[in-house]
Design goal:
Number of strands: 42
CATH class of the largest domain: Mainly Beta
Oligomer: single chain
Largest sheet: 10 strands, antiparallel
Number of domains: 3
Helix content: 10-25%
Shape: globular
Strand content: 25-35%
Distance between the termini: 42 Å
Number of helices: 13
Length: 741
């Protein structure tokens, strides 16, 4: 049993292979959090300390027990109206504006298997080990209930949490905040690690002390966004990659979110994850319920690397679904940086012919094939093929690509519409905009109201006609603007929170229907690059375009930040042209390939423009990727350098789970004349074994490689008969195998 109820002590303990999470049904039914950490069998009730502290509130039914205050104890699902002035997980108002919500324990049940959520992504488990705990809290004065669910995956060391709020009263109520999870820690000094950024600069790592204040990470943009990522870590002050305590929260939701971390006056720290509460105002009518999205929690006492590896395995095996989750993805070429929207079938075939001759396995036709789409001012919403522009039908183009031995993929942006489109002229009310107010435009486009099923069904039907004709193997699904003007033309009450929540459910419904119709389809997520890179999207898309910034050096930093919460196999990464599209930087061709292999691997350029030497490298790069694919995508990932702090080189490695082999990747970022010796320390190897460099036969001690490191290798000088140091942005891959007797 993974979930143990001790009736005598009123505790419920959730066990994974290496961790334990304990809940206590406290005095007067207050549901307390007592422990989350390394596996233990004991009662951690002592962690809840009762003291009479001045100027705190006590429940009315506690009478003179002034030591009992919701503000002074760690709680599982704190409510704003229960005398707890810390950040709430739940906030409810009556329709007259009065704050209510004194939630008390009512019942619980333990069931085999992992719960699922209708219309929402959720962690799943194919084994018989998972269990579900359901705890029902009832509002003391009304028939409002909060149904808390906990999923325990012992073999993954993961506990999931979600909440459902049920209105059992005879009046409307308004949820102003309904988070998915709360974690109250009673002691410790903690840092908040979050991943901030912007378009073309996603998931930069930020680490700040939590302190005696509330730190809020989140977005109001209608998508999980480039600007903050819904994966947040609470790390012990001195925790590093390979040591220290860390807690993670990964939110399986692709809309606006909020994660708050706050230190209280008495040494405690609270972390709350959920939908963005600003302007949420979700109205629940009598008998209606609200289902919060899921949050996946994990704990590591072995540092950030171990925490990352837990999430990598969880996402790879228990969030991603379908035939592509464990399959090597086709090496593709995308035409966007080669042509933009200005292309014909002849141009595309010219690119495809060269790509096929060099071993590329799939061509993806990007933006510009539909409606009157010669630029980004028109055409979105008109999902019919512009045969006049292409010079043929989509079916004919796809057949010509397949005749070259390649698969065929296509780009779509189903959630958007241009005012200059047949769809908008016919259905202006389908766009999110407030009557009488000019809407804000993004990329000259509006957002379709995907909270309405008829809108989703219309777009799905028209896109499917194109996919049927082309028999597409792959779809890149983009989303290129934030959401601002929220209004539902069919709704009597304009609850921004309800519309946006149902909008995200509409996006999920679109993808689910697409995958049901085309079960072998490889679906890639995209939102102006990495603007919706979250665990919720990965439930539908086994890979997401990591960033529109394809500059190799910038991509090192972007992929570094992404790696904390997401596995390599989910990162869409391509070799692009130089000077780079965004930065104008020139990075060596082989280095661009090494960096793109920390992802799905493909090309984003016209291979006809390569030099003869570069063209000769393409088949070698592809075969290298295929050779190491299993290690790259299934091995344990180790960050060896912190690229956020001006490191001289970027280094990362993948290690087989049995430690039989490893692939080390190094890119030089800083150079100087007559430079000192530089070593890179490896990690994850068997310290008692020896490892051989497969390229030159050199043998090293695993212990030495991890304690001293390996010196940066030298390479032959192009002109003279000596060896030189690696130059700026040059790279090396070293494949190590364990030496066996």
């Amino acid at each position: 049993m993974s979930i143990i109820h001790n009736a005598e002590k009123s505790t419920i303990t959730l066990h994974t292979d290496n961790t334990s999470y304990q809940i206590k049904i406290g005095p007067f039914g207050l549901l307390q959090h007592t422990y989350y950490g390394p596996h233990m069998e004991e009662d951690a009730e002592y962690c809840v300390m009762y003291r009479d502290r001045g100027f705190t509130l006590t429940p009315y039914d506690a009478e003179r027990k002034r030591w009992l205050s919701a503000e002074l104890m760690p709680l599982e699902y704190p409510c704003e109206a229960a005398g707890d002035f810390r950040a709430p997980a739940l906030s409810i108002r009556r329709k007259d504006g009065i704050l209510i919500g004194d939630m008390r324990y009512e019942s619980h049940r333990i069931e085999k298997g992992k719960y699922s959520l209708e219309g929402l992504p959720a962690v799943y488990d194919d084994t018989e080990e998972a269990e579900t705990l359901t705890v029902v809290l009832k509002e003391k004065n009304t028939n409002i209930r909060a149904v808390l669910q906990y999923g325990v995956l012992p073999h993954r060391d993961v506990i999931t949490r979600t909440a459902r709020i049920e209105n059992g009263t005879e009046d409307d109520i308004v949820l102003t905040h309904a988070a998915s999870a709360c974690l109250d820690l009673v002691s410790g000094e903690w840092d908040v690690i979050n991943f901030h950024g912007r378009h073309a600069g996603e998931r930069n790592v930020s680490r700040t002390p939590s302190g005696h204040r509330e730190t809020v990470v989140g977005t109001r943009r209608g998508a999980s966004s480039h600007h903050q990522n819904p994966f947040v870590i609470l790390a012990e002050k001195d925790a590093g990659e390979l040591h220290g305590q860390c807690y993670g929260m990964s939110f399986l939701y692709s809309g606006s979110f909020s994660c708050s971390v706050s230190g209280d006056a008495y040494g405690g720290t609270r972390m709350v994850m959920g939908i963005q509460p600003d302007n949420f105002d979700y109205v629940l009518t009598p008998g209606e319920s609200f289902q919060a999205p899921e949050t996946a929690l994990a704990y590591s006492c072995e540092g950030l690397t171990k925490l990352s590896q837990i999430y990598h395995k969880l996402i790879s095996q228990n969030i991603c679904r379908g035939p592509w989750k464990n399959r090597r993805r086709p090496v593709l070429i995308n035409n966007w940086e080669a042509t933009g929207p200005d292309f014909t079938a002849e141009k595309i075939l010219h690119i495809a012919e060269k790509a096929a001759s060099l071993g590329v396995e799939m061509l993806v036709l990007d933006d510009g094939w539909f409606g009157k789409r010669d630029d980004d001012f028109a055409g979105l919403g008109d999902w019919y093929v512009n045969t006049e522009k292409l010079g043929c039908t989509m079916g004919e183009l796809a057949a010509s690509i397949r005749d070259l031995g390649m698969k065929f993929g296509i780009w779509i942006e189903p959630e958007m519409v241009n005012e200059d489109s047949d769809l908008y002229r016919a259905h202006p009310d389908w766009a999110l905009q407030v009557p009488g107010i000019e809407p804000a435009l993004g990329r000259s486009q509006l957002v379709l109201d995907f909270s309405r099923e008829e809108v989703v069904d219309y777009i799905l039907d028209h896109i499917c006609k194109v996919l049927d004709e082309s028999k597409a193997d792959y779809v890149k699904m983009d989303m290129n603007r934030p959401i601002f003007d929220v209004y539902n033309a069919l709704s009597a009450y304009q609850s921004r929170g309800k519309i946006m929540y149902k909008y995200i459910l509409g996006v999920y419904r679109f993808m689910e229907k697409l995958l049901e119709r085309y079960p072998d389809l490889l679906l890639e997520g995209c939102a102006s690059g990495g603007g919706r890179f979250d665990a919720g999207m990965l439930y539908y898309c086994p890979q997401i375009w990591c960033s529109d910034n394809t500059d190799g050096i910038d991509r090192i930093r972007i992929q570094y930040g992404t790696s904390f919460g997401y596995p390599v196999r989910t990162m869409g990464a391509h070799v692009s042209r130089v000077p780079n599209y965004d930065t104008r930087r020139i990075v060596p061709f082989d280095t661009r390939a090494v960096i793109a292999m920390e992802g799905t691997f493909g090309y984003e350029l016209d291979l006809n423009t390569l030099s003869e030497e570069e063209a000769r490298q393409v088949p070698v790069q592809i075969e290298t990727f295929k050779k190491y694919w299993d290690l790259l995508h299934n091995g344990l990932y180790y960050r060896l350098t912190d690229v956020t702090h001006n490191t001289k080189e970027a280094a990362w490695m993948m290690v087989a789970e049995d430690r039989s082999e490893a692939l080390l990747n190094i890119v030089v970022l800083d150079v100087s004349g007559n430079r000192p010796n530089r070593f890179v320390k490896l990690a994850g190897l068997d310290a008692s074994a020896s490892y051989k460099d497969e390229a030159n036969g050199a043998v090293y001690s695993g212990a030495a490689l991890m304690s001293v490191g390996i010196p940066l290798p030298k390479v032959p000088h192009e002109k003279y008969h000596w060896m030189r140091d690696l130059g700026e942005y040059e790279s090396v891959q070293i494949h190590f195998t364990k030496v066996t007797d």
